[in-house]
User: What shape does this take?
Amino acid sequence: MSLSAEHPRHKLNELIHSPVRFSIMAALARAESLDFKDLRDAIQVSDSVLSKQLAALEKAGYVKIRKSFAGKMPRTSASLTPHGREAWNGHLQTLRDIAGG
Assistant: This one.
């Protein structure tokens, strides 16, 4: 790498790089959609932590939140948007670049 080239870490997505948001993005990248409770249990966080982090990802356009009802029970699910999938793939590539792979 030449001295004038920018280190790949400058390309890391700071929003995704947070451990909880990274875990959310990873879980959603492997599924078309996940129910809130399944996502919460998969990444082992509280409801409030998951809600806050999903809101940040939704605001950035990375995640789509859907609210519906199963009978009379409210149901919330999340999925990656195309923009979110692109951001996720770019972030993973940057990590590979940093690791030399």
In short: The beta strands are 34-35, 63-70, 73-80. The CA atoms of residues 23 and 43 lie 6 Å apart.
